[in-house]
Design goal:
Chain lengths: ~375, ~425
């Protein structure tokens, strides 16, 4: 169990978890940019409601990934911090703006104009962040970032400022938007669901196009990465699954079986992350740092096992409960949304305001005087 | 600006910004639990108070979450050579912190958004879970800092670390005193902010039940934590005297090793002239504080190579500010306790309320000053005695650019947060009328 390879696999799972949860939250921001027409406000409200209770928890997967990396592969973490200082810093600024703008819009008690400004900041930051994160993933795969004797020797632009870096970034943006659209086309209120279904199909087409473009760019910018992918016996099955999933998404989006769309999107993202993992071929930073030489200490790797086990035991039921509470509520919320459609337009942060004066049953006991 | 200075400034800025939200994330849930418990006994004002605190906390927690993320990445962006060595040693506490924070985020989501969706007992439980995981995540992070102050659990060989003990941070000698001191500072500082804000509201509207409750609860938390903090500060000082003599010498501006060392109040240390100017001195005071004996010898900066001195003036001034704030806070708490003992209604104690308003920022000021003492006082080391900050910094040039970016970003966020919290405090009188 003290094998750093295992930690590499766990990191892949954490990346997948982030893509499917935190990524979808970023995707929600991207969709907020696309909200148009008579139901624009309802679309934005659906996005805010879906993200509100869970985005901070979803965001932690990214931190878990970082902590795993510097705990087990500290040399790779150090090299990344130096070589990819620029895209990582940009991603951080994006994450900060997106998180704070979201909560300022939802809890800021501002008027409509102010709230719209925060939504714009939230949306643009949500779009910019995956672009930077994607280019970081491209850089570590590219083979352009070189480390000799523990020093980065390839400068500060290598790997990420290439067509492959840009294509991977755009692919991340489109994938997150696809995930968010698929989730929302299943969960949102009936008046906006068709819009999200249309977004799902559009995003799916863009994801396929960008995946092909990324592959083409990779042949030139990351040849060893592509070679590792090709050498893997799993690759044909993975490609077939991804293609089948994309087809299912295209065919089922907006139809009755929304859970099928959602499952297909999850499968598609899983294939993308798995494919990336195969291409990395147990490297943290191609070609110089791999699981064998990235500075792992056997005792630290061994100690992580109880930590991860303890954490999972603690987390899994809580996380399940969080999702259950806000999933189960969705059906009721949809009914409420239908009733609301007639009522004067309500804004997302009415909820805290409404709670203040709402007839909460637990209030009844106290406010009798 | 030299890149090392820019990197230190960016790290200091990020920590100073994040810590304000981190202490709020630790302490506000405790106040919310207190309010929820009273609300369950049928107190409507407490129920309304819990809701309002929850809304403010939602903003503070989000800013804390994203600014904490920035810090975890900045470890690699600014100090890659520190992390290349220390990662395996500090990874376990950071990993545990990650899980604690995960738990905190999950239950905060349930608490904030689930009021009408989960059973009341579960709702209260989620508030307790937030409070407990907030405390544990804070303690885990402090373990890392304690390890940097008093590193253990490894052997140096061929420029690398061998025999790494991943649990060593929890065995760092500084860990117990630092953890307790930091946790108490979180509760005390936020109690004072809440006390000050609601005291101001109570001065404006003396009949408000809601603000009266808030003042009672915040004062209650301050009553418990402030005196304990003075005691824990004494333990911390004795520990620093034993394990980090350079830090204590800098904090006290003690240039010469001496028995019956004086305690300097105020004053400006002149590192070049190696003397303290314009300080009020209590003979033997430092010896007593550091070793419990007025005649004990205290190590001065002369025992430490000049190249290993921390910036003396900054450390000393920060330490003075922290102690002054703590003393003023204790005085206010004693005043509050006396009012309570005499059963005077706090809404009529206008002098006390005015003092509480003035004292509102003192706790946060003390937190910032205290972190300055522990961080600047450890310089020039990033890992005390083993790795210098100058050797840990990234080779990345033009670090003034990200520093400028984060400075403007955090200034903007600071202004926005204050504006929004002001709205929450002052723009909800309608809700109060409903409750009262």
């Amino acid at each position: 169990m003290s094998d750093p390879h295992l930690v590499f696999v766990i990191m892949g799972l954490v990346l997948l978890a982030y893509a499917l949860t935190g990524g979808a939250d970023l995707g929600g921001g991207i969709l907020a940019l696309l909200a148009r027409g008579p139901h624009a406000e309802a679309e934005r409200r659906a996005i805010t409601r879906a993200i509100g209770p869970i985005w901070e928890a979803n965001h932690v997967w990214l931190i878990v990934l970082v902590v795993l990396m510097f705990t087990v592969f500290p040399r790779a973490f150090a090299a990344l911090g130096i070589a990819l200082h620029i895209p990582i810093t940009l991603a951080l600024v994006g994450l900060v703006l997106r998180g704070t703008a979201f909560v300022f819009g939802a809890y800021g008690l501002g008027d409509d104009g102010e709230r719209a400004r925060w939504v714009r900041v939230f949306a643009w930051a949500s779009a910019a962040t995956p672009l930077c994160l994607g280019s970081v993933l491209a850089a570590v795969a590219s083979g352009e970032v070189r480390v000799r004797d523990g020093e980065v020797v390839s400068g500060y632009l290598a790997g990420w400022s290439s067509p492959f870096g840009l294509a991977t970034g755009l692919l991340a943006v489109a994938t997150f938007a696809l995930t968010a659209a698929a989730y929302l086309s299943a969960d949102a209120g009936p008046e906006v669901r068709p819009r999200f279904a249309r977004h799902t199909r559009t995003a799916q087409a863009i994801v396929v196009t960008l995946a092909l473009a990324t592959g083409l760019a990779a042949r030139h910018d990351a040849p060893a990465f592509v070679a590792s992918m090709r050498a893997s016996p799993w690759m044909p099955a993975l490609l077939a699954s991804a293609a089948a999933a994309a087809l299912v998404v295209w065919l089922t989006a907006g139809r009755a079986r929304t859970h099928l769309t959602r499952a297909a999107v999850v499968l598609e993202v899983t294939c993308l992350v798995l494919g990336y993992g195969l291409g990395m071929d147990a490297h943290l930073l191609r070609p110089d740092l791999h699981v064998g030489n990235a500075g792992s200490h056997p005792r630290t790797v061994a100690a992580l096992v109880p930590v991860l086990a303890f954490g999972t035991v603690l987390l899994a039921p809580s996380l399940w409960y969080l999702l259950a509470v806000f999933r189960g509520e969705r059906a009721r919320r949809e009914a409420a949304a239908e009733a609301e459609a007639e009522a004067p337009r309500r804004t997302p942060d009415d909820r805290p305001g409404r709670e203040t004066c709402a007839a909460d049953p637990r209030d009844g006991r106290g406010s009798s005087h | 600006m030299p890149d090392l200075l820019a990197a230190r400034a960016q790290m200091a800025l990020s920590l100073a910004f994040h810590i304000l939200f981190a202490v709020a994330g630790m302490a506000m849930p405790v106040l919310m639990v207190l309010a929820e418990v009273r609300a369950r006994r049928g107190d409507a004002a407490s129920a309304e108070l819990a809701r309002r605190w929850a809304r403010g906390t939602a903003i503070l927690f989000a800013v804390g979450a994203v600014s904490g993320t920035v810090l975890s990445f900045e470890l690699g962006l600014l100090w890659p050579r520190f992390m290349a060595h220390a990662g395996p040693l500090v990874g376990v506490p950071f990993g545990l912190e990650g899980f604690a924070f995960f738990t905190e985020a999950i239950f905060l989501g349930i608490y904030l958004y689930g009021r009408e969706r989960v059973p009341p007992a579960m709702h209260l439980f989620s508030a307790v879970a937030v409070a407990v995981s907030g405390l544990t995540s804070g303690v885990f992070v402090v373990a890392v800092n304690a390890w940097m102050n008093t590193p253990v659990g490894f052997t140096l060989a061929d420029g690398g670390l061998v025999d790494v003990d991943p649990w060593a941070a929890f065995a760092a000698p500084a860990f117990p005193t630092q953890a307790i001191h930091t946790a108490l500072s979180a509760y005390g500082s936020i109690a004072f902010v809440v006390l000050g804000i609601h005291a101001l509201c109570l001065l404006r509207d003396p009949d408000s039940v809601l603000h009266h409750r808030a003042v009672q609860m915040a004062l209650g938390l301050a009553l418990v934590t402030t005196p304990l903090q003075i005691v824990s500060g004494d333990f911390a000082a004795k520990h620093v005297a034993a394990h980090q003599p350079a830090k204590l010498a800098a904090a006290e501006g003690l240039f010469t090793t001496q028995a019956r060392a004086p305690l300097c109040i105020g004053g400006v240390p002149d590192a070049d002239a190696r003397q303290m100017r314009w300080a009020f001195e209590i003979p033997g005071g430092l010896s007593f504080l550091a070793h419990g004996d007025v005649d004990a010898e205290v190590v001065g900066l002369d025992a430490i190579p000049r190249a290993d001195w921390p910036p003396v003036a900054v450390t000393h001034v920060a330490f003075q500010i922290m102690v002054a704030c703590g003393t003023a806070m204790l005085a206010l708490v004693v005043w509050g306790a006396w009012l309570r003992l005499r059963r005077r209604p706090l809404a009529r104690a206008r002098g006390f309320l005015r003092a509480a308003v003035l004292a509102a920022p003192l706790g946060l000021l003390a937190v910032e000053a205290g972190w300055t003492v522990t961080e600047v006082g450890r310089q020039p080391w990033i890992v005390h005695g083993f790795l210098r900050t100058a050797d840990a910094v990234t080779p990345m040039p033009k670090l003034a650019l990200p520093l400028a970016a984060f400075t403007s970003l955090y200034l903007l966020l600071g202004v926005v947060v204050v504006t929004m919290l002001r709205r929450h405090v002052f723009a909800t009188t309608r809700a109060e009328r409903v409750v009262e």
